[in-house]
Amino acid sequence: MEEDPRQRELTNKILAAIKKEYGFIPLVNQVLSERPDLFVPSANFGKATMEGRGVMEKKTRYLCSLSAASAEGAEHCIRVQIQHAVREGATRDEILEAMVIGTFMAMTKAQSYAFREYAKFFDVDIE
């Protein structure tokens, strides 16, 4: 596929900004940046979602992200979202609560799947 030089230039600028912000370039960004036509929209969406105008303050957005990353077991995302949340004023207790909520939701999701199969196998009457 032929690469648009303007998108490559924009990709390089975005990558430089990410490295300046995080101190490194996350793997997802490294891989997607091979295709500027995919990377630029993805990076723009991420920026708009996490830092754009909205009704939730940045700290809340980062705590939500941390909760989701915790639920997914995304260790690198967890580290980055903790840093962002703290930078936006999140306390140690808020960080822990966000992580507990996320991991609790992941646990109940796993239980839901597992217990449904248990109920089917053992003919447990569920609604």
Low-confidence stretches: none
Number of helices: 6
Strand content: under 5%
Total count of strands: 0
**What is the first-to-last residue Cα distance?**
52 Å
Label the structural class: mainly alpha
The overall pLDDT, averaged over residues, is 95
- Give the total of domains: 2
In percent, how helical is the residue content?
over 70%
Radius of gyration equals 19 Å
Biggest pleated sheet: none
Order of helices and strands: HHHHHH
Sum up the overall morphology in one term: extended
What would your notes on this structure say?
The protein is 77% helix and 0% strand. With 127 residues, the protein is mainly α. The protein folds into two domains: 1-53, Single alpha-helices involved in coiled-coils or other helix-helix interfaces; 57-127, no CATH class. It starts with a helix and ends in a 6-residue tail after the last helix.
